[in-house]
Structures are given as C-alpha cells and as structure tokens.
Amino acid sequence: MIRERIRIVVRGAVQGVGFRPFVFRLATELQLEGWVLNSVQGVFIEGEGPRDSLNRFLLRLEKEKPPRAAIQSFESSFLDPVNYTGFEIRQSQESGGKTALILPDIATCADCVSEIFDPADRRFRYPFTNCTNCGPRFTIIEALPYDRTNTSMKKFQMCADCEREYHDPRDRRFHAQPNACPRCGPQLQLWDSAGQTIASKEDALRQVVESVRAGKIIALKGLGGFQLIVDAANEKSVLQLRERKHREEKPFAVMTPSLATAHDHCRISELDERLLLSPESPIVLLARKSNARLAPSVAPGNPNLGVVLPYTPLHHLLLHGLGIPVVATSGNLSDEPICIDEQDALERLHRIADVFLVHDRAIVRHMDDSIARIIAGREIVTRRARGYAPLPVQLTQPVPSILALGAHLKNTVALSVGQNVFVSQHIGDLETEQAYTAFVRSAADLPQLYEARIDAVACDMHPDYLSTKHAVQFSVPIRAVQHHWAHILSCMAENELTPPLLGVSWDGTGYGGDGTIWGGEFLRGDVNGFSRGGHLRQFRLPGGEAAVKEPRRSAIGLLYEIFGDQLWSLDHLLGAFDRSELSLIRQMLEKGVNAPLTSSAGRLFDAVAGLIGLRLRASFEGQAAMELEFAAHDRVDDKYSFTLHQESPLVIDWQPAILEIIDDLRAGKTPGMISAKFHNMLAEMIIAVARKIGQEKVVLSGGCFQNRLLTERTIDRLTAENFRPYWHQRIPPNDGGISLGQVVAATMSENPKRAEI
Ligand code: ZN
Ligand code: ZN
Ligand code: FE
Fold first, then answer.
1. For residues 140 and 152, is the Cβ–Cβ distance under 8 A?
2. What is the per-residue pLDDT across 462-499, written as a single tens digit (0 to 9) for each?
3. What is the CATH number of domain 534-733?
4. Topology of 3-89 in CATH?
5. Cα of 322 to ligand 1 centre, how many Å?
6. Mind listing the pLDDT tens digit for each residue in 631-648?
7. How far is the CA of 198 from the centre of ligand 1 (A)?
8. Centroid of ligand 1 to alpha carbon of 345 (angstroms)
9. How far is Cα 595 from Cα 331, in angstroms, rounded to an integer?
10. Staple partner for 404: which of 326, 442, 519, 743, CB 3.0–4.6 Å?
C-alpha cells in the first residue's frame, strides 16, 4: 500500500470549539500519523496513511465536525510522505505568517439557509442574509483591514437589531462585516432591458420565478458578477441564450435546487458530493446520467455536466421557488469578462437578457464560478475563482515580492508576499478590450490590497502577449519566463517538489524562445532552471492561429509533414477541404509562409480529431481534444506505435501512429477504438521519455492534463513503472496556473534582470 501525506488547512470558526481534539480522535481512529496545530492562518492538519484512509479522513472531518465548528474554507493537497510516527496536537504557532489573509466568498451556511426559510425569523426570505461563517468577502473588500467601512457594505447603516448581533460575542453575527437584514440591508429590484424598474423586493423575486418558467432569459446580479439564468429543460430558451450570447457549443453549467436533484441528472461519488457541498461550492464536472432530462443544447455532445448548488440566499430562494434546474452561466458575451455593475450589464446584456434582477450592494471585483472535478481520485481545480481566490499557495521559504502577469488565455495574475503567493481569480482570455481592462485592474489590485512594494515583474516570453507588453509599465526588473517551464514550476510549487525532475508540459500553444510554437515538451528541471529534454515531432500549422479554430488544418499540416508533396495526390486524405481552400493551404505549406512550426500536443489532438473526421471546425479552444477524449472506448489496451529519435533534445515521432490510424480508418475502425489507442500511445510516449531521462519524479502540467483519460492513464502507467507522478490540485493545469509558475521562476535567479529561458 502506497503511503501518502495529506495537508488540510481549515479556516473559520474552528478555534476554541473542540476542533483539535476531534481531529486527533478521528486521525487516531483511522490510524493516521501526523499532527494538527492552530495558527493565526487557521488550523493546519497533516496526516499520513494509505490513500483510502486519507479520503475517509477528508470526508469525515467535514461531516462529523463538532457542532459549534463552522468551516469557511477547506483546502487540501496530497504530498509526499515524510514518515511521521504517531499523531499529535502540536503547540500553537504564534509567530510567522502574519500577513493578513483575505477570505474568499463563502457559500451560504446551513444556519442562514434555515433562517431564510423560517417564517418566524426576521430574515425570512431575505436574499442578502449572511453571518460570520458565510457570505461575500473578496467581492466586497476595497481595502484591508477587513472592516465594514472598507467594504461595499459601508453605505448601509446597520439597524439596532443588526448592530446588537454585530457586537454580541455570543452571536453568530459577531463582527460579521456584511451583516444585514430586510430593514437595513441591500434590496432587490427587477428591471426591464431598458433599465426601468418593474418590481422590487419579494415581488421582484416572484416575477423572476414566473419569467424563468415562461422561458425568459434572466440577468441576475450575483455574488461576483452577473449571471444569465434560463430554464435548463427548455430547449428553445437555451438555444436562444446560445444565439444571443454568441456561444455556440461550449457547455453551460447547471444550478440544481438541491443535491437530490443533482443526483437525478448525474452520477455523484462521495468526493464529488463533498465538493458540491463545500464552502467553496464550485461548479463540479460530473458524469451525466443517460436519462437526464435537460435540454440537449445545455452541453451538446458532452457526457459530463457542470453542476453547482445554490451558494447565496438569492440563489436558494430562486431555485426553491422554481424547483427545477437552471442554466447559470456568466453574464457576458463570449470571451468578455463578467459584468459587475448595473449600467455595464444593461449596455452589454440588453440584447441577451429579457429582465434584470439587480440589487444595491456593489460588487468590488469580478468573480466567476470556480470549476473543479475529480481526476485520479483527487480534486483538481480547473478554473480558480469564487471560493478559492485569493487564498495563497505557500512556498517553502520567503521570497521577494514578484508580480507575475500570466499568459494570454485563461489569464490570472499572482503576487508573492513573504512565503505566500496570492493567485488572482480567473480573469479570462485577453482577446477583448474589456478583458484587457479587467487584467490591468487585477494587476494593480493585488499589490494595492497587500500593500506590496514590487521587487520584480514576471511575464511570458511571448513578445506579442498583451500581458507581456504590460510589464514595461513597471519600473522594476522584468523577468520573461518560458511558458512551459512556468507550467511545470506551478505544479512543482503546489506539490512542494524540488528538482531534479522531468516536467511533461503539454498544451495548445506557448512561445518556445526559438521562434517555434512549443506545446509537447519534456523539460529536465534542475536547480538552475530547465533544459529541453525532448519534444513531440514538429509540423506546420497552415494559417497559424486559424488552425486553433480548425482541427482540419492541424490534420493537413501533420499529413504534409509525413507525405510531403505526395500528399496532393492522396485524395482520400484531402476530403476536408474544397479545391480553392486546398490550393491556398498548399501554398502556405510548401512555402512555409503563415504556417508556423509547432510541437504542440494540443494540436496533435486536433490533428487526430480532424483526420478521423470527428471534428473539422471547433467553436472553442480544446473542443476537438475534448471530443476525442469523450469518444474513447474504455477497456482498450491496444496502442499505436511511435518512434524515439535519439537526438538532443529527443524527438518523439507520431508518424507510425498516424499511418496506423489511416489504416484503421480504411479498415472501418470506430473513432472510439482509434481514440483509445491514441490516448494509450501518448501515455507510452511519456513512459519512454521518462525512462530515457531517468528521473523518478515526473510532473504533469499544461492544458492537456485537463483530459481525464490521458491524465489517469499516464498516472497509472508511471506508477506501474516505478516513477512518481505529480499533477495539479488547487491550481489549474491550464494557463490559469502560469502566473504562479512565473513567480517561482523569477525567484530562482539571483539577478532578475537576466531574461532567460
Ligand atoms: Zn451563515
Ligand atoms: Zn438590520
Ligand atoms: Fe499553456
């Protein structure tokens, strides 16, 4: 049995309520070894034992906690064991880590939920009910310290009853900064799309319920921004939302009234359930049941469904009134950041939403819903925002203050203060003016909140990224960090790994530093940085960026790399293009103009999806790869072949596989079979390189490792071959993790002025 270590940080009302003795008893019962301790930053717990016992520990800690304990945040990471003996309650830590932490927004607690449904309670049906254990935090804070006068609640004068609760140490609302009630707090209004008030308070809520039932699209001002809400069973309305929002096929998340209704639609494991009910309350990607009665357009062609439970009193009241699941998606046009104020929402969403449910509590910073799922029996956050941001990742030692500006897609920024790295909430793709503005604001926000004097700025090496260009605004040294190395460093940081190791960094696109596009990289990491140990064989992408939207372009680029000019006579491989398109593509490939070379694994996925006709054009990044993953048959052990060219760096050649796929296509093999063999081969490629490089630790990062099949297969195979695989947990494997990696890179050299790979 492999022994692992789990670290859990619990924040909330867990001090002085018998929490530590409870942890001790539970750990001892489960025969775990480790310790528990109180610190100014919360209760820290470490336990060692077999994975199953650690999972039981994780689940029971929350379920069986002492009655007076209230958990506001619960983050866990699996780490290498350090061989503790026995379990102990350690001496409280008074010193160290004095940095004030800003808590994330916390899902409504059970006590508050029961109050809003209790006709005898003074907060009956009040949509802005909260207490010390739940409610808005990061989305209302303007400055530290966290006092009401520093939040967007400052304009609401507490009534005598609220004031009394706020000052009573025995009350659940003692020092609850956003404390409010129907008499003194924020109120609802319902507006039409011209901004005229139609209804207010209870009446607004009642009319919204009717509107959803009537198939209308609602813009709802939520916790961290506007959401668009529509009846998830009404195909016509869901389609209308897609059309108006310009979001063709990217799956929508669904909010269900309760856990029970979520069970009607999805298969939910114990770990999934923990995530759904956690104070972080993310959207959880679940396996959808075949009899789920939802509109087909909610998540077309997708065997998974993103599900979130109500996490504010407003959502509880709305979903309770409806009793049916709704689509709950961010209030924006595709690729734009979420709207946070009424005027902006009216301007940008008036063509999308029929009515606007708004309130008078200002949202200080935008916050999307987070997305998490279980991969290889462990939680992994793929979009980190509400509920998680801005809790820090702790480094093993203090570092200078670095502001990292992230990448281009799924941008986040990060700031190091002492030992903590604060990673911002998900900002988005910096493709639009609005997204860029949100990025600039976030890059100013973190240093201001933590009153940090920045020692250096870190950014991507890509000279054309807006985030890179922004770096020159700061009059401090700039450190440009290679994209794929940043991926690996982010994964190392959250797993507390030290080199030497092998980093497998697979994604769609990243600037290589040698003028080509990287993305299928094997990086040797040592104390000085990295070297490129190997990469997937390169091929040309005709049309460059256009290839991201058209997997068929990746396919033809790959075929041209194999067949050269002979390709133009192989008609059976050219069916995805008409004659005029072909002649253009041919020119690009033959002349190497507007056809950059890439070693991208993401584009290899695209190429295979295109080649087998699964998807020729994609409506969002990663769609083809996702569909290839979903198509794969279980329980296929067959795999395609590849070759390893003994060069330095190693070149991993997919050519044999592509020729075998063409044969399989001719033999009428299904996409399911082809996809399974392809995935199995990718895992073997990683094994083959790992053997050559000869490092025990293998770190998996980059957007490709959001692919559950690839990730689980690779972990299984690496473990079977006696390597130690590491993958992401609290930080996304996609470009949302780049800023953390950039911070770490910038601290690695004595001289941050030296821009290097
Ligand atoms: Zn509460
Ligand atoms: Zn009040
Ligand atoms: Fe990337």
1. yes
2. 999 999 999 999 999 999 999 999 999 999 999 999 99
3. 3.30.420.40
4. Alpha-Beta Plaits (3.30.70)
5. 23
6. 999 889 999 999 999 889
7. 30
8. 28
9. 36
10. 743
